[in-house]
Amino acid sequence: MYKHNEIEQKWRKFWAENKSFATGNNSNKKAYILDMFPYPSGMGLHVGHLEGYTATDIIARYKRLNGFDVLHPIGWDAFGLPAEQYAIKTGNDPEPFTLKNIANFRRQLQAMGFSYDYDKEVNTTDPKFYIWTQWIFKEMYKQGLASIEEIDVNWCEGLGTVLANEEILEKNGIKVSERGNFPVVKKPMKQWVLKITAYADKLLEGLEDLDWPESLKQLQRNWIGRSKGHIVKWNISSSEQQKLQLSTFTTRLDTIYGVTAIVISPEHPLLQKITTAKYHDDISNYLKEVKLKNELERTSLNKDKTGYFTGSYAIHPLTNELIPIWVSDYVLMSYGSGAVMCVPGHDQRDYEFAKKFDLRIKKIIECDELPFLGDGIHINSDIANGLDNAGAVKCIFNELKANNLADEKVSYKLRDWIFSRQRYWGEPFPVLFDEENNIYLVKELVELPKIKNIKPSGTTSGPLANVESWMNVEINGKKYHHDTNVMPQWAGSSWYYLAYILKNPDGSYTPLNSSEAKKRFEEWMPVDLYIGGQEHAVLHLLYARFWHRFLFDLGIVNTKEPFTKLINQGLIMGPDGQKMSKSLGNVINPDDFILSHGADSLRVYEMFMGPLVESKSWSTDSLNGIRRWIEKIYNIFEYFVKGNIDINNSNNELISNINKLILEVSENIEKTKFNIAISKMMVFTNYLTSLKTIPSSFVLKQFAILLSPFAPFLAEELLFMLNEKPIQYQTWPYADETKIIIKNIQIGIQINGKVRSQIEILPNWSNEEIIENAKKLDNVAKWLQGHEIVKVIYKDFKILNFIIK
Ligand code: ANZ
């Protein structure tokens, strides 16, 4: 009788004792199969983790059986807010809490039979790990990519910290923190900033060759938001003596003859200077109003436009017309130059703005109706008349450039990465400040001090500010202090996939900047397959690509990109079709099902639910069905092994079927179509139940190995029943295609859509052969006689239709 608990326990023990999944080191074929490592929350693993982790595990096991050295590691993204909040709430240290959660996660992963090499386990909160996170930071600092800046940051009072743009959501037009849904406001603060913008082009270009979902690449492109355009410089008329100039950024230089206003951002540094006395009060009231709005509210197309005239005029560089300068919050200071040339005739937002404030609307491109946003023949445009967009841009740019009034410019939506968090549970910065706030890099590890009681320490510094003994350092009589902030959670996850490669069985790490590291990276990088949730489309995946590209530029790693192929697993929804959440009470706990149904059933079920990338709803009924299939496999083996193998009884059909199955399972694993691979195996087991005897156990052995990536515990037990060696000593079965019996295929033949006959064909016939043979059939020839065939419609092995006249 199939007893999953006994079987699973037995093989779990065997694998651990034998280090069955140790990273291989004998083959010149290498495969690096990576999961997005989990944040070890107090809740334990959820079924979504298991979906992605089962998928990579199937590939890892398949690759091993195919003679690859496989690196399939796991670790813990263990710094982070929940542990910190828990610690604050309970007055505990986040470290033991985190370690306890990790132990629980590890137990769950082992229960699922994932073939991780636990010697490679990493933990971002381990000083041996984060000394290298700090090292990368220091290298960035040396290269001018990390600096302290006073900037408008996203301040979240509820969390007591600054957040990156990527950590903020818009809910009903209000900015809130992704974690906890607390309101977020803008506030100037001194922060560490990483210049990811310096890598914008490299990050864009690097996307091209990646085997990633196109939609995900597009998300990253949009996030980087590269626009090629022009800066136009406008002299301000009232300021001849001061020679004030204002720059606008435009992607439509061709429309410059349609400009009827200049609109600047409320944060523009020239605003005060150019506002005339008459408009002063209006504008200072307006600025107060604007402070309360967020970016989305400001720039949405359908939001009512607001703004004020400043009282000043700019001189049109080509026509010398006086152009009124307005201020409006639909212009953002953080993009382009913080000022736009307003072309109401040919831009939607400018049109709405002009309508609201009665500005002139000029038509400068041939069209029926304004606003017209497309390309066309330019009119009312003096030197650009008769030209299209490209021609007009060129001729206008040459004219302006000659007078030094325009430049080419590329703008990015991407902002630099704010890298300070006012928290405790993170990597400390490896720096010291002297009393003049000069920065010194610390050569050694800067270890996070233990604190008894984590308390936020106000608005500009983190809880570390409370630890005076750690904060203040005296070296050779000179006083220094540490940074009160720590790094964001994204730091460790930006390079952890390299840390696995550096991790040694004795727990040490080979130095990231050593020649040994370089050699190992050359062996293992890039990651061949990375599977994880869609929620990391821009955050983690952009940061990790940035750090990796930086390490490439330093000569540390040998590839420009870290992750060659990436798959986003689909969401597993609750039984009610809704996203699982505590509040809906539809969360499925894997622990319960491992006990009741077994890990193998759970693995196979999650892979059988549907295509990996699609979202699907949980159904315990279907899980029961899978459990019955798993049990059936066990029973089939037991039946044959107990005396129903008859060597005198050859069966070509069985041999054909298993060889066909080997082809199908291999192909569908390669294509990550695991649900299809499983259904093929189901068809085969149904066939097996129809047999009284089989000629040898060889077929059973082959089947057990095919099953092993999906249901590894059962597969080990089946091999054991057959007296065969465990999986780690086996190889993937070879499909002997000469043994596959090809059955003829029937196709219906239609004449003008009416079925008139049918034909039996062989799968290797060409389309021409099929059509020619069909025409010769009596029942077809009869109908075709005396008619002209105007069209032949043939759908692969399904239908053949002659259209005749
Ligand atoms: C004149 C113009 C005429 C524009 C026209 C568009 C159409 P993308 O493509 O997203 O880069 N713009 C420039 N800086 C801005 C800022 N700080 N805040 C808000 N809008 C700004 O958009 C570039 C266009 O967005 C620029 O081209 C500018 O409007 C506006 F028929 O200039 B355009």
UniProtKB/TrEMBL annotation:
GO CC terms: cytosol
UniProt keyword annotations, A-Z: Aminoacyl-tRNA synthetase, ATP-binding, Cytoplasm, Ligase, Nucleotide-binding, Protein biosynthesis
Domain Aminoacyl-tRNA synthetase class Ia: residue ranges: 414-607
NCBIfam families: leuS_bact
Residue ranges occupied by any Methionyl/Leucyl tRNA synthetase domain in the UniProt entry: 37-168
GO process terms (BP): leucyl-tRNA aminoacylation
GO MF annotations, alphabetized: aminoacyl-tRNA deacylase activity; ATP binding; leucine-tRNA ligase activity
Protein name, UniProt field: Leucine--tRNA ligase
Similarity-based family: Belongs to the class-I aminoacyl-tRNA synthetase family.
CDD domains, per database record: Anticodon_Ia_Leu_BEm (cd07958), LeuRS_core (cd00812)
Reactions listed under catalytic activity: tRNA(Leu) + L-leucine + ATP = L-leucyl-tRNA(Leu) + AMP + diphosphate
UniProt xrefs under SUPFAM superfamilies: Anticodon-binding domain of a subclass of class I aminoacyl-tRNA synthetases (SSF47323), Nucleotidylyl transferase (SSF52374), ValRS/IleRS/LeuRS editing domain (SSF50677)
Ranges where the Leucyl-tRNA synthetase editing domain occurs: 221-400
Residues where ATP binds: K582
Residue positions of motif 'KMSKS' region: 579-583
Domain of life from the UniProt record: Bacteria
Pfam families on file: Anticodon_1, tRNA-synt_1, tRNA-synt_1_2, tRNA-synt_1g
EC annotation from Swiss-Prot or TrEMBL: 6.1.1.4
Domain spans labelled Methionyl/Valyl/Leucyl/Isoleucyl-tRNA synthetase anticodon-binding: 653-768
Annotated localization: Cytoplasm
PANTHER family hit by this protein: LEUCINE--TRNA LIGASE, MITOCHONDRIAL, LEUCYL-TRNA SYNTHETASE
